[in-house]
Amino acid sequence: MAEHAHREITRRELRNLSGAIMRGDSFIWRRTFVLRAEVMAAFATAPVLDAETFRRDLDSTVDQDPFSREW
């Protein structure tokens, strides 16, 4: 029996190649995960944010009123 070659594809390719997949072509879809410990280590030295100050800064910079936009 012949061995089928597999290749990894992205989500976009999965969507675009769905017809080929339904016809029996073979693909591997791999998701990328980051371990929790790696994320925590990456943010371990990040400064602590004060939520109230952050919201005040955001509100003073960004117009968050959905009714004031031109659609």
Write a structural description.
By secondary structure, this protein is mainly α. The chain has one domain. 42% of the residues lie in helices and 6% in strands. The chain is built from four helices and two strands; from the N terminus they run βααβαα. A two-stranded parallel ribbon has the order 1-2. It starts with 7 loop residues before the first strand and ends in a 10-residue tail after the last helix.
Please mark out the parts with pLDDT under 50 across 5 or more consecutive residues, or reply none: none
**Main beta-sheet strand count, sense and barrel state:** 2 strands, parallel
Counting H and I runs of at least 4 residues, what is the number of helices? 4
Q: Which term fits the overall shape? A: flat
What quaternary form is this? single chain
Strand content: 5-15%
In angstroms, what is the radius of gyration? 23 Å
Distance between the termini: 59 Å
Strand order, sheet with most strands: 1-2
Number of E strands? 2
Provide the helix percentage: 40-55%
Structurally, how many domains make up the residues? 1
> Mean pLDDT across all residues, rounded?
78
| Structure class | mainly alpha
Reading the helices and strands in chain order gives EHHEHH
